[in-house]
Amino acid sequence: MASLRPALFLDRDGIVNVDTDFLYKIEDVRWVEGIFELIAHARSLGYAIIIVTNQSGIGRGYYSEEQFHTLMDWMCRELASRGCVVDGVYFSPYHPVHGIGDYKQDTDCRKPKPGMLLKAAREHGLDLSRSVMVGDRCSDIAAAANAGVPMRVLLKGTGSAECPSEPGHILIHTLTEAIPLLSFAENDCKE
After folding, report:
1. What is d(CA 168, CA 68) in angstroms, rounded to the nearest whole number?
2. Would residue 28 show up in a list of annotated catalytic residues for this protein?
3. What is residue 158's predicted lDDT score, i.e. its pLDDT?
4. 13 has catalytic annotation
5. For the chain, what percent of residues have pLDDT higher than 70?
6. Choosing from 11, 87, 136, 140, which is the catalytic residue?
7. Residues 19-35: what's their mean pLDDT?
8. Per-residue pLDDT reduced to its tens digit, 100-128
9. Is the CB of residue 91 less than 8 Å from the CB of residue 116?
10. What are the residue ranges spanned by the domains of the chain?
11. What's the per-residue H, E or C state across the chain?
């Protein structure tokens, strides 16, 4: 049996792309500085690259699941063309308060719950105990903690001010600051 591999879990809005509130148009995509270097370095260390993203804009009726998939297909192709292959994309279209119709529900897949990370681990053979989460909101960090991801990296930004500091939680100001942390995490977790 093949051994489980670690993952670099990435939030999308605010980490992969600049958060522009309910992004669904290709022409509105702007990459966060350092994302290509971060993904390339993680891949060189053997990490699977997994995007986990709350997309309540779908549930609110701002855009469709089809529009989301069209954008993500394009983003993944663009990333791959730069040597930054993404192994999986997981999203939650639900919102417990603002969702419309079937999208108005509290599910295990919406961060801060760990459902997306746990599903990715099952589907991709991931070792959560050797994985890293990079996000810009407390819900990203909480989802990783709830899934058993030991290193949780918070990019200082719009949603990070109120996050409590906990063991395994590291605050950074740029994505390039996360690059050496991946090597540390990988070396720290080897047997």
Report:
1. 32
2. no
3. 60
4. yes
5. 92
6. 11
7. 96
8. 999 999 999 999 999 999 999 999 999 99
9. yes
10. 7-189
11. CCCCECEEEECCECCCECCCCCCCCHHHCCECCCHHHHHHHHHHCCCEEEEEEECHHHHCCCCCHHHHHHHHHHHHHHHHHCCCCCCEEEEECCCCCCCCHHHCCCCCCCCCCCHHHHHHHHHHCECHHHCEEEEEEHHHHHHHHHHCCCEEEEEEEEECCCCCCCCCEEEECCHHHHHHHHHHHHHHHCC
CA-based nearest residue to 157, from 6, 18, 4: 18
pLDDT of residue 164: 72
pLDDT at position 175, please?
97
Q: According to the model, what pLDDT value does residue 185 have?
A: 61
Amino acid (1-letter code) at residue 152: R
Tokens of 85: 């292959």
What class is the 7-189 domain? alpha beta
**What is the model's pTM?**
0.93
**Hey, which residues does 145 pair with through a beta bridge?**
none
- Active-site choice (13, 19, 87, 140): 13
CA distance 94 to 104: 6
Q: How many other CB atoms are found less than 10 A from the CB of residue 105?
A: 12
Residue pLDDT, tens place only, 154-164: 998 765 556 77
